[in-house]
Amino acid sequence: MKLLAALAILALLVGCGGVPREIRLGVEQLASGTDRADELLTAQIAERRPVIRDEVVALVDAGTIASVEDGIDEIERRAAPMTVAARVLRTVRSALLALERSLDAWDAGSGDGAFLDAAACVVAVLGELAGALDAAEVELPEALLSGAEVLARFAGAACPESEAANGQ
Amino acid sequence: MASEVEVALSLAFKAAEFVAGIIARFIEGDDSAEVRRVMDVLSPELRADAELERQRVQDRKALVDALGTDPG
Fold first, then answer.
1. Angle made by CA atoms A10, A142, A35, in degrees to the nearest 5
2. Taking every pair of C-alpha atoms in chain A, what is the biggest distance, in angstroms?
């Protein structure tokens, strides 16, 4: 019985060819971490935005702001870290989709080339997300951290898209 | 007789129409149990976007109230 259990654990660790299981688990952590980040950001928007709104309405009452559009601009300016974090989260989701497609291609026998590039892009955008969440005063989910650590060990040297953008 | 694909498309359209209506109600400030129940099963990404739009609607309403002007 113990031997069977040990063999089962070994099979889980080694995997059955194709994409290493550790990478699959890392990508799953990143997906759930991204969901969690969205939940935390939603809660922050729901809590913080009304406070900012009240601050700006106080400026209207004081005569500092005289139009609805100016008031909206001021609210958006003060809430910008949360809006930026939401935008970066969308970029992370898109990069994760590309990463998952590259894993499927790897499993189908295309090799790990596309994965190495896609993983480097995810790692790059995760760095941006960490900064954006910090600026929005949103905690970085643990699953994102652990998923990023796994991916960083396997990722290629640089994201081709970033290199193309830097070369322009 | 409608094919299975046609039936599926029809149901999908009805579901999308229903969810869109719920999201619109949420954005307009509806906090009813029905709206919350449906919002809770949507993706975290969609909920974040809806929450941001809901706050924007409330921003405009608050500013219009404070300034006493029509947003146009």
1. 100
2. 78
Distances (CA, A) of A127 to A119, A140, A149, B13, B51: 12, 11, 11, 39, 25
**pLDDT (tens digit, 9 = 90+) per residue, A110-145?**
888 788 889 999 999 999 999 999 999 999 999 999
ipTM score of complex:
0.80
What's the number of CA atoms in the CB half-sphere (13 Å) around residue A7?
4
Q: Which domain holds residue B34?
A: 4-67
Record: contact B67-A67, CB cut-off 8 A:
yes
**Distance (Å, whole) CA B68 – CA B63:** 8
Domain membership of residue B53 (yes or no) is: yes
- pTM of the complete model: 0.81
- Among A41, A53, A56, the residue with its CB nearest the CB of B48 is A41
Domain count, chain B: 1
Residue B63 included in any domain:
yes
